[in-house]
């Protein structure tokens, strides 16, 4: 039997084993940007891949008074514009769109939820589906509280089947607001029913980290403070604030990227071997990383954290304005568009290994990557002829390119046998791989919370970030400027130089 057939059969069998429960998908914010760009295309691709329940109902909500037809036409347009499947398969689209209904409601008005409940129940009866309900809140965070309490009071959440809640970032504005929000959610949903999206956890290479680390014994053996000198996590972006000035100027890189995505990458990189690959055990290990993350005292923040803001510059040959000149930004703003930090995980395993993170807008390149630098323990043997031997480094490219490379040392016969670095590289050129939202939504449909942020992770992340937020607010740290198109302020390079390292 050709191997491709075996693979197809296996995939088919795998999918059969995962029989998904019939259910209702209730989408708040269905007329919004995220729904159009990410959620509908992701649902459609899952549908095409057979990763959808046999019977399902999808109900979209927004304030504008759309008919079902207008809503379905809007979804069709979104699929044609944003789905990674370029072929427009009319029969599949039609079948998919038939599942959608639209209800106009103001989420702040508790009385209108009756209308929604009627629609949900009517569709459950028509399709003979159990009361399994997934509520996706793709709305501004200020509405999360009122929607969940209205779900509770209207009876929408009292189902005879399961219920789940998916919520988008940001989860709170600081530690206190996140705790308050969580308390409110818990009045309607149990922790295991809440799926907090961090789209970085949906990236294929982030989901692959666990396998790269734990399914490769050669890496596992080397993954400790005896062999590793430091670990660097970078998420650099070339874009500026785009059309999100009002949000970003209040948020800054610390809230927008560090509290969630960067710390999630840290947890995924540093966690110890879990007992199993289920959500409970993986989350336990991630939480341990955060519990052991050394808190930054008020007096030490400026030693370990660099705050930056971009000035005008050039990116890919084009001139761009500085942050203060961006439309909608307060001219005297001291908001952070760049953050770098040195972190320590105080456990036997990582003791003495600094972790560095950096993220910023309007940088030289768009790249999210994790770099593991190994110690140069055998340097003496080659020191005379070579003075400096490059360290072995393992680079895990998360996006936009996906790949793994390992820098080794080798003699170069064409250069007097000098020891020089060589790169062994794997780049994923797989086409048509599922997007983050597809992977995450599929997990939520089948009730697997492994790649969603648990409350404890979110709370511990805010707890670590909180003193830095306060230091930024009180201007206790310098605000370093950096030119757009650079890799951030010099102070960020200095942070590593102090320890004898450079950013890779
Ligand atoms: N867009 C993105 O790329 C990303 C967004 N997010 C998060 O996703 C969430 C949604 O973002 P986005 O789609 O961009 O936001 P939009 O502003 O584009 O959409 C907001 C949605 O909320 C609805 N809405 C607003 N007020 C009410 C109300 N009182 N009653 C009922 N519905 C209401 C709007 O409906 P109508 O207009 O019909 O009133 C619209 O459907 C936010 O939490 C955001 O932080 C997270 C990551 C990326
Ligand atoms: O959550 C966010 O992420 C994006 C970066 O995501 P990526 O998948 O392109 O790496 C960032 O631009 C945005 O400010 C932030 O809110």
UniProtKB/TrEMBL annotation:
Function as written in the Swiss-Prot or TrEMBL entry: Catalyzes the oxidation of glucose 6-phosphate to 6-phosphogluconolactone.
Gene3D superfamilies on file: Dihydrodipicolinate Reductase, domain 2 (3.30.360.10), NAD(P)-binding Rossmann-like Domain (3.40.50.720)
Binding-site positions, NADP(+): 29-36, 63, 106-107, 169
Protein name: Glucose-6-phosphate 1-dehydrogenase
Alphabetical list of Pfam families matching this protein: G6PD_C, G6PD_N
Listed InterPro entries: G6P_DH, G6P_DH_C, G6P_DH_NAD-bd, NAD(P)-bd_dom_sf
Pathway connected to this protein: Carbohydrate degradation; pentose phosphate pathway; D-ribulose 5-phosphate from D-glucose 6-phosphate (oxidative stage): step 1/3
Assigned protein family: Belongs to the glucose-6-phosphate dehydrogenase family.
Key words of the record: Carbohydrate metabolism, Glucose metabolism, NADP, Oxidoreductase
Residues covered by the Glucose-6-phosphate dehydrogenase NAD-binding domain: 26-208
Active site, renumbered: 261
Every Glucose-6-phosphate dehydrogenase C-terminal domain range: 212-504
PANTHER family: GLUCOSE-6-PHOSPHATE 1-DEHYDROGENASE (PTHR23429:SF0), GLUCOSE-6-PHOSPHATE 1-DEHYDROGENASE G6PD (PTHR23429)
Binding-site positions, substrate: 199, 203, 237, 256, 361, 366
Key word 4Fe-4S present: no
Enzyme kind, highest EC tier: oxidoreductase
């Amino acid at each position: 039997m050709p191997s491709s057939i075996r693979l197809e059969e296996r995939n088919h069998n795998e999918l059969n084993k995962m029989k998904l429960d019939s259910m209702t998908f209730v989408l708040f914010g269905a007329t919004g940007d995220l729904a159009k760009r990410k959620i509908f295309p992701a649902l459609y691709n899952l549908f095409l891949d057979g990763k959808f329940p046999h019977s399902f109902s999808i109900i979209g909500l927004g304030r504008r008074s759309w008919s079902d037809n207008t809503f379905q036409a809007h979804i069709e347009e979104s699929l044609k514009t944003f789905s990674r499947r370029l072929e427009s398969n009319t029969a599949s689209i039609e079948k998919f769109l038939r599942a959608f209904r639209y209800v106009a409601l103001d989420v702040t008005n508790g009385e209108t939820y009756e209308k929604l409940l009627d629609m949900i129940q009517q569709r459950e009866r028509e399709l003979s589906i159990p009361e399994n309900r997934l509520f996706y809140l793709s709305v501004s965070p200020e509405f999360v509280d009122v929607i969940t309490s209205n779900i509770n009071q209207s009876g929408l959440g009292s189902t005879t089947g399961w219920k789940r809640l998916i919520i988008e970032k940001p989860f709170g504005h600081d530690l206190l607001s996140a705790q308050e929000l969580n308390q409110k959610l818990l009045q309607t949903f149990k922790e295991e029913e809440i799926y907090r999206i961090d789209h970085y956890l949906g990236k294929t290479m982030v989901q692959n980290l666990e396998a790269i680390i734990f399914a490769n014994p050669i890496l596992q053996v080397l993954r400790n403070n005896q062999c590793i000198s430091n670990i660097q996590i970078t998420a650099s972006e070339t874009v500026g604030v785009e059309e999100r000035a009002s949000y970003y100027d209040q948020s800054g890189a610390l809230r927008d990227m560090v509290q969630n995505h960067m710390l999630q990458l840290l947890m995924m990189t540093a966690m110890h071997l879990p007992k199993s690959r289920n959500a409970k055990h993986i989350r336990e290990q991630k939480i341990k990383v955060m519990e052991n993350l050394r808190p930054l005292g008020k007096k030490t923040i400026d030693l370990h954290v660099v705050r930056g803001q971009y000035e005008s510059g050039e990116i890919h040959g084009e001139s761009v304005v500085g942050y203060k000149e961006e439309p909608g930004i307060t001219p005297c703003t001291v908001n952070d568009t760049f953050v770098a930090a040195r972190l320590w995980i105080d456990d036997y395993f990582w003791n003495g290994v600094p972790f560095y993170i950096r993220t910023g807008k309007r940088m030289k390149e768009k790249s999210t990557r994790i770099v593991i630098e190994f110690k140069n323990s055998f340097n003496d043997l080659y020191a005379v002829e070579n003075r400096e031997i490059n360290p072995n480094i393992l680079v895990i490219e998360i996006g936009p390119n996906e790949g793994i490379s390992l820098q080794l040392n080798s003699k170069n016969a064409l250069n007097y046998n000098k020891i020089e670095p060589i790169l062994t590289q794997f780049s994923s050129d797989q086409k048509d791989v599922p997007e983050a939202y597809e992977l995450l939504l599929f997990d939520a449909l089948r009730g697997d919370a492994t790649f969603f942020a648990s409350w404890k992770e979110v709370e511990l992340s805010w707890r670590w970030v909180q003193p830095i937020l306060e230091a930024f607010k009180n201007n206790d740290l310098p605000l370093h400027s950096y030119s757009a198109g650079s890799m951030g302020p010099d102070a960020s390079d200095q942070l590593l130089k102090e320890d004898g390292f450079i950013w890779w």
